């Protein structure tokens, strides 16, 4: 079994490790030579090749580049596919990607995927085996992919101990904005607030407890990854940002009025999230 992984960062490198464990010979491709050779040195892939050469005899092609790069690469890769090859992407947004290839003759060989897994780290050094275990893998527009391609990736994700779920592309992007992308916006914004207003690095280091560090952890995420995600999911993200700011205003108004009852009511309502989160964990 041969697979090609294009983009050898956290997600691409981690899935390359999983494919190796499953017995695939994995060929790596990365636009950055330093990343490519780091991935090879760290044992994420068996070998490196050019994009064209990497596709030869590969039964599975995994596109794990940032979404802006994937938008350019996805149609090109479909042009280059031979019969029975399966192509998946692992991007955090799906609407633009699916629209870009909806009329492509080889669209049935492509399965739009998004693993709900990750960390705040990036690059080949961040790749880890087991990143996807017990996580959800979203497949979008399943009916537009061939039965063979879908069955192939479902079996693959099952071997990786992932749980597969299905959404339409725009539905996925809306939910991703509300439960994933807004967390990164909030984390970046809070980090900027602290950096702008707190002049003492020492105080931040000494007084930052678990709540603060866990909240701003995502602010360490790579801008080159998240700027394209925010832009591609702009409309849904603007909607959730507006809703989030309304909640912040409610807390501010209650605090300004010294309204303890209102503050407690808002917090009790927020506590209901544990009913969902505890089950998920």
Distance between the termini: 34 Å
Determine the structural class based on helices, strands and strand pairing. Answer: alpha/beta
- What fraction strand? 5-15%
The helicity comes to: 40-55%
Count of strand segments:
8
The CATH class of the largest domain: Alpha Beta
Mean pLDDT: 93
Globally, the shape reads globular
Physical arrangement of strands within the biggest beta sheet: 3-2-1-4-5-6-7-8
Would you identify the CATH H-level superfamily of the largest domain? Answer: NAD(P)-binding Rossmann-like Domain
Largest sheet: 8 strands, mixed
Under CATH, the topology of the largest domain is which? Rossmann fold
Radius of gyration, in angstroms, nearest whole number: 21 Å
CATH architecture tag of the largest domain: 3-Layer(aba) Sandwich
SSE layout:
Layout: E1 2-6, H1 10-21, E2 25-29, H2 33-41, E3 47-48, H3 51-54, E4 60-63, H4 67-80, E5 86-89, H5 95-100, E6 110-115, E7 136-140, H6 147-159, E8 163-167, H7 169-197, H8 201-207, H9 210-216, H10 223-232, H11 234-256, H12 260-271, H13 273-280
Parallel strand pairs: 1-2, 1-4, 2-3, 4-5, 5-6, 7-8
Antiparallel strand pairs: 6-7
Helix pairs in contact: 7-11, 11-12
Describe what this molecule looks like in 3D.
The protein has helices at 10-21, 33-41, 51-54, 67-80, 95-100, 147-159, 169-197, 201-207, 210-216, 223-232, 234-256, 260-271, 273-280; strands spanning 2-6, 25-29, 47-48, 60-63, 86-89, 110-115, 136-140, 163-167. The chain folds into 2 domains: 2-168, NAD(P)-binding Rossmann-like Domain (Rossmann fold), CATH 3.40.50.720; 172-280, Orthogonal Bundle (6-phosphogluconate dehydrogenase C-terminal fold). It has 281 residues and is α/β, with parallel strands linked by helices. Helix 7 packs across helix 11 and helix 11 (234-256) packs antiparallel against helix 12.
């Amino acid at each position: 079994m041969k697979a090609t992984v294009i983009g050898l960062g956290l997600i691409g490198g981690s899935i390359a490790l999983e494919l190796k464990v499953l017995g695939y010979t994995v060929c790596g491709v990365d636009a950055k030579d330093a990343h490519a050779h780091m991935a090879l040195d760290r044992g994420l892939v068996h070998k490196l090749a050019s994009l064209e050469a990497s596709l030869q005899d590969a039964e599975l092609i995994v596109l794990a580049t940032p979404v802006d790069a994937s938008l350019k690469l996805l149609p090109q890769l479909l042009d280059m596919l031979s019969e029975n090859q399966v192509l998946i992407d692992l991007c955090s947004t799906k609407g633009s990607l699916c629209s870009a290839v909806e009329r492509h003759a080889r669209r049935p060989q492509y399965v739009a995927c998004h693993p709900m897994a990750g960390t705040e780290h990036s690059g080949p050094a961040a790749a880890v085996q087991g990143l996807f275990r017990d996580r959800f893998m979203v497949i979008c527009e399943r009916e537009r992919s061939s039965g063979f391609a879908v069955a192939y990736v479902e079996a693959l994700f099952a071997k990786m101990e992932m749980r597969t779920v299905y959404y339409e592309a725009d539905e996925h992007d809306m939910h991703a904005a509300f439960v994933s992308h807004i967390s990164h916006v909030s984390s970046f914004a809070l980090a900027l607030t602290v950096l702008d207003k707190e002049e003492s690095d020492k105080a931040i280091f000494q007084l930052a407890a678990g709540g603060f560090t866990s909240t701003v952890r995502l602010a360490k995420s790579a801008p080159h990854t998240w700027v394209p995600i925010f832009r591609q999911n702009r409309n849904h993200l603007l909607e959730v940002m507006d809703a989030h700011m309304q909640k912040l205003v409610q807390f501010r108004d209650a605090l300004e009025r010294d309204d303890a009852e209102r503050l407690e009511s808002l917090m009790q309502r927020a506590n209901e999230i544990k009913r969902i989160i505890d089950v998920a964990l």
